[in-house]
Write a structure and sequence with these properties.
The chain is 45% helix and 16% strand. The chain has 19 helices and 13 strands. The strands form two sheets. Strands 7-6-8-9-10-11-13-12 form an eight-stranded mixed beta sheet, sandwiched between helices. The longest helix has 23 residues, at 83-105. The radius of gyration is 23 Å and the shape is globular. The model has no long low-confidence stretch (mean pLDDT 92).
């Protein structure tokens, strides 16, 4: 076992505390739930984009455990991004567990006095990890596993049937606007009085929040860029995220003959955010097969760079056959790949993408959240459709204050067909007309 390498990753065995630099400066909404789940016997899995904050949350949980009186040596952290450790533990995971128990905790693994907390970062890089953890989980020892992964497909395959009923999934996304600002609004999406009250309570902070929204529109929500002021520095860091994701989470796992084309496709998609995907068009531009485009898009989706939304229909076959709609998981990452200025038209597309990503955050306990768009035979459209607590919620994004009924005829028609209420996201218009609520974007983004 590579004990020296592992000791380096677990500095608290010597210092008695987690380095403050590892803990981040932003309070994440998921943290309270993750702490509660530490008492469960199930495996906790943090899944989401690279650099979205999974490792920082793990360090936060370790810090919480130490401050709660858990012995430092009963907490083990291993990052499988380290190739030496990954190659070694692929064959010697069981031996590592035995040596950790005997040499570090200094107790037999089958007779531990207290629970050992095992944090395994980027676990999807360990082949057959699901069956490995199933064995250790099912033995019934005093061991609690907390794992993370940046590839949804590898996590799904790894957990599969082997960990069915044994694992909690937590989707960790880039910062929401409320995390970005440190402000949160408690209001029901369909309760206009609550929304009005929240709006009025923030009226003195409104200008500051609008300035922060403009910053958020440009930079997005990756925690590492939160404190960066220079936009070029931000975009350089975000381009590096894309490169790392492609090189470490896709090329390591997929047999791709032309990685440059995959990177070019990611760049190309940035100009088609919030639009329906035309695979043939991309294939023609890149001079590759349509099936290759579909495969590459699925790889980018598996690693949380993009998300494709199906058309909403009560008939699954219709939903599957129709064109998908493209969103980016983080608008800042998308902006870094875009080779043009962010004008007012682009801001409207970005707001739609932000609304989508915040809706996604509402469904983060699902491994594959289902979010849709809708369009009828005469092209009347609704930007985003999802279900929450059994309700169908359609949202149309109109980032302006000049909105007439004709502008939202798709939303009105959808509400009539599916007997529901609709939401229009505006620039600064707050009102209710019949079964439609108009909500300013800055308020909506603080609500979800």
């Amino acid at each position: 076992m590579m004990l020296d390498e592992i000791i380096i990753q677990n500095a608290w065995w010597k210092t008695g505390h987690v380095n403050k630099a590892r803990l981040g400066i932003i309070k994440r909404q998921e943290f309270k739930l993750l702490i509660q789940e530490l008492t469960s016997k199930k495996i906790n899995c943090l899944i989401g984009p690279r650099r979205a904050g999974k490792t920082t949350l793990m360090y936060g949980m370790i810090d919480y455990l130490i401050n709660s009186g858990i012995a430092e040596r009963n907490i083990l952290y291993i990052s499988f991004d380290n190739p030496k450790i990954r190659l070694s533990l692929q064959k010697e995971f069981d031996e590592m567990m035995m040596e950790y128990s005997s040499l570090i905790i200094r107790e037999p693994i089958d007779n531990l006095s207290n629970t050992a907390y095992i944090f395994l970062d980027e676990i999807h890089k360990l082949e057959d990890w699901g069956n490995i953890l199933k064995y250790w989980h099912d033995v019934g020892l005093k061991i609690k596993f907390i794992v993370s992964g940046s590839s949804s497909l590898r996590i799904l395959k790894g957990s599969g049937e082997s960990l069915l009923g044994r694992i909690y999934f937590n989707l960790i996304l880039p910062l929401t606007f409320s995390e970005f600002t440190g402000r949160q609004v408690e209001a029901d999406l369909y309760n206009f009085n609550e929304i009005q009250k929240a709006h009025d309570s923030l009226i003195l902070e409104k200008q500051d929040l609008l300035i922060k929204l403009n910053d958020y529109i440009l930079k997005g929500g990756f925690p590492e860029i939160f404190s960066m002021k220079d936009i070029e520095q931000v975009y350089d860091a975000l381009k590096l995220y894309k490169t790392l994701t492609i090189n470490r989470d896709i090329l390591d796992l997929k047999d791709i003959k032309d990685p440059r084309t995959l990177s070019d496709l990611a760049d190309l998609l940035s100009d088609f955010m919030s639009q329906r995907i035309n695979y043939s068009r991309f294939a023609k531009i890149l001079n590759i097969k349509v099936d290759t485009v579909k495969s590459y898009i699925s790889y980018l989706e598996e690693c949380f760079i993009i998300y494709t939304a199906y058309m909403y229909s009560k008939k699954q076959v219709i939903s599957t056959r129709k064109e998908k709609k493209l969103f980016f998981v983080d608008c800042g990452l998308r902006n870094s790949l875009l080779l043009k200025e962010i004008d007012e038209l682009e801001k409207t597309k970005i707001i739609e993408n932000l609304v989508f990503s915040h809706v996604l955050s509402l469904k983060k306990r699902d491994l594959f959240p289902k979010i849709f768009y809708w369009m009828d035979k005469v092209k009347n459209e609704v930007d985003i459709v999802f279900t929450l607590n059994g309700k169908i919620i359609p949202i149309e994004v109109k980032y302006t204050n000049e909105i007439v009924r004709k502008d939202i005829k798709g939303l009105i028609k959808f509400c009539g067909i599916f007997e529901t209420q609709g939401i229009v996201i505006t620039k600064d218009l707050l009102k209710k007309e019949e079964n439609i609520i108009y909500i300013p974007a800055w308020i909506f983004l603080l609500m979800v």
